[in-house]
């Protein structure tokens, strides 16, 4: 099986509502836009987990306690809540996008490799 060519993407992640939406942007290498989007979703979920227990973002344990339900039902409710709070995106890298996002929390560990890209 041949190795797929890696391309550069700018992914975004964040929390909606009072958190302000996508505010974190990062340049990554990925074999496809679909894979880059999956990575962005993981980053958004990790952002949710950092705020669990604060600002109305509940953990599975909190849902179980507050709603008096078992773990499986709480996990289902938790996943729905996470999905309702997270926002994420993935776009092919371009200098135009880089300029658009560089005033946010922006990270490009591939500056040398992306320097000559449009």
Written overview of the protein:
With 118 residues, this protein is α+β, with helices and mostly antiparallel strands. It has one domain (7-114). Helices cover 45% and strands 25% of the residues. The protein has a four-stranded mixed beta sheet, with helices on both faces. β1 (7-15) and β2 form a beta hairpin.
Question: Secondary-structure blueprint of this entry?
Answer:
Elements: E1 7-15, E2 21-30, H1 33-51, H2 60-67, H3 71-85, E3 86-92, H4 95-101, E4 105-107, H5 111-114
Parallel strand pairs: 2-4
Antiparallel strand pairs: 1-2, 1-3
Roughly how many Å apart are the termini?
30 Å
- Give me the secondary-structure category: alpha+beta
- Tell me the overall shape: elongated
Tell me the major beta sheet.
4 strands, mixed
Helix content: 40-55%
Number of domains: 1
Please list the strands of the largest sheet in the order they lie side by side. Answer: 3-1-2-4
The mean pLDDT is 93
Radius of gyration: 17 Å
Q: What's the β-strand tally?
A: 4
Order of helices and strands: EEHHHEHEH
Into which percentage range does the β-strand content fall? 15-25%
Specify the number of helices: 5
Give a summary of the structure in a few sentences.
The chain is α+β, with helices and mostly antiparallel strands. It has helices at residues 33-51, 60-67, 71-85, 95-101, 111-114; strands at 7-15, 21-30, 86-92, 105-107.
